Amino acid sequence: MDINSVYLAPGLYFFSYFYYLSVSHGLGNKATFLQLRRFLPCAIVAVLPIMMGQVPLTAPYLSTSLLTGFLWITTYPLLYFITYRKSSTDFGFHFDPVFGMYIIGWMMSLKLLVISLNLLPNVFMPVLATVEFLIFMIPFAQWVYYYLYRTCVTEDGMMMIQETHYNEIIEYFKSFSVGFNIITFALVAGLYALFIWANLEYTSVMLALWLIIFLAGLSLVLGIYLWKKRKGVFIRTGIVELYFDIKEYFETTMLYQTNMKERIKDLEVTPSVPEFKEPSTIILVIGESASRDYMSAFTDYEHETTPWLSAKKQDSHFILYPNSYSSIPHTVSSLERALTEFNQYNDKQFYTSCSIIDIAHKAGYTTHWYSNQGHLGCADTPVTLVANTSGTAKWTKQNLNEVQYDEMLLEYLDEIDPTKNNFVVVHLKGNHFNFINRYPQSFAKFSEPGKYDLINNYIDSIAYTDYILQKIWEYGKEKLNMQAMLYFSDHATIPDKRRSPDFGGFGTVRIPMFTYFSDNYIEKYPETYQALLDNKNKYFTNDLAYELVCGILNIKSNHYDETNSLASPLYKYTRDMLKTNLGQRSLSEDVD
User: Fold this and answer.
1) Alpha carbon of 222 to those of 190, 234, 249: distances in Å?
2) Is 0.70 topped by the overall pTM?
3) Per-residue b/e over 395-415, b at no fewer than 16 CB within 10 Å?
4) Whether the Cβ atoms of residue 57 and residue 4 lie closer than 8 Å to each other
5) Which residues contact 367 (CB under 8 A, 6 or more apart)?
6) How far apart are CA 530 and CA 532, in angstroms?
7) Euclidean distance between CA atoms 507 and 326, whole angstroms
8) What are 524-566's pLDDT values in tens digits?
9) Is 369 helix (H, G, I), strand (E, B) or coil?
10) Closest CA to 116 of 63, 69, 49
11) Neighbours of 252 (CB within 10 A)
């Protein structure tokens, strides 16, 4: 028996216990003493295979198991502690050390079983090494995340990870230099090769087979237990529990479809038919990552980035709203509120809330949704659930590593029947990172074509969006008898700052918004037009966009609160009342 293995069990036990205490906050006496007992059998299970198998700790194939377990014991509790030690007084993650110790014993037992019984070790040891490497990569990836964003993986971060479309991943890596990507992939490949090498360089020893078989059987039982949904140790570790919490959130949003009939049954809207003399169209354009700070129509920016909108600023048919904000710098969380009754200021839930599409249906409009967002990820999100309730819902083709510019959406406008009353939503890719991919390089005005330059690429994308808005407006006005058009962005961005899933300052929520109204609309609804003129300099967050759309549609409904609508003289909100980052920050804090 290796003498070092004798000291490993108590060393692992005391390290894990006191480490747990040091990176926790607000633990009661019960939790403190409970873990004192709980960690002891875990440490024994981790070390017993080595002690009974008479294997030296220096055996390479054991070192990878110890390294993997150590990372699980330390990573999430430490990163959470660093992130929240000053803002939270009650947290602790004892299942991470428990799982870390279990994974050491589990992997060691399986390896020793393969070696002792000579079970095709040249085949099964690399397989076990691969499994171990994948388990190792979970905490390792958390350290990479912390290096990039200086925070542990938060709810917003996990939501962004689960929503990310594969083309966005490709674009993200393209934003780095070729050398950086080569080093990154070489590092990962090198780590994997190290795991494979360590688990091929083993020394056969005579083992107590009955004990190893027993431990392997125990490992199998533990494995089933660790992976059992919502009850096992693995599922209750910090990062995995966070993953399933966000997954459960997305599953809960699917109730939106289930509740649709009940929601519509209760919805009352008047009038039920548009009151314009001829078939008319209302268009809503949703931008992406557009910041009014870089738009000359809203600021004294050094370059003319929005020539069309700047020219229209003096046109009385257009109203610009210079004090508009996003409710959160995160697409899905922002739009699930902007598109429905659900907002920062009420206690409603997304899956029970009526949407702008529901309202438009009831108001007698044929609804259309055209998007260049590629379903916002690999699964349905609240945004796609709302979109799919439209009479027509189409997305541009998002082929692997292929860029689709927003001008592709213009083709869909030809499908709209001008002899009907239409409510049209156009969802742009807009100014989403990677900015250089948001516009054709022949359109570059401020950057050198093909050259990666964050600020100039971004303002080129802003200018391109201005062009797209012009084309949508022209088409609607000339061919669809457009009565009104509303544009706002889901959130903003700070182009020369690394994108973060968490709140990165007010520069990430200062969004552009404008409306256009025809002469016919202004004549038909002068009160609405005047209310918007009177309120144009008031503060607004885009989770109130649902009520704004209801006001523009000039409807009355049991699911429409006029005091929330910028289109009503009853609009109640002031700067001091409004919030962003889902209620965590007041707009009055934005001193810039």
Assistant:
1) 30, 10, 28
2) yes
3) bbebeeeebbbbeebbebbee
4) yes
5) 357, 360, 361, 389, 390, 391, 392, 422, 423, 424, 425
6) 5
7) 10
8) 999 999 999 999 999 999 999 999 999 999 999 999 999 999 9
9) strand
10) 49
11) 12
Do 468 and 269 touch, CB atoms closer than 8 A?
Answer: no
User: E strands of 505-587, at which residues?
Assistant: 513-517, 540-541, 556-557, 579-580, 585-586
At a CB cut-off of 8 Å and minimum separation 6, what does 391 contact?
361, 366, 367, 368
- For residue 17, what are its two tokens? 């216990």
Query: Rounded to an integer, what distance in angstroms lies between the CA atom of residue 573 and that of residue 47?
Result: 62
- Evaluate whether 350 touches 253 at the Cβ level (below 8 Å): yes
The DSSP code sequence of 139-195 is: HHHHHHHHHHHSS---HHHHHHHHH--HHHHHHHHHTS-HHHHHHHHHHHHHHHHHH
Residue 90 structure tokens: 């009650």
The tokens describing 290, both together, are 């557009």
Size of the chain, expressed as the number of residues it contains:
592
- What is d(CA 102, CA 140) in angstroms, rounded to the nearest whole number? 18
Q: Look up tokens 């967050």; give the residue.
A: 541
pLDDT digits (tens, 9 = 90+) for 274-303: 999 999 999 999 999 999 999 999 999 999
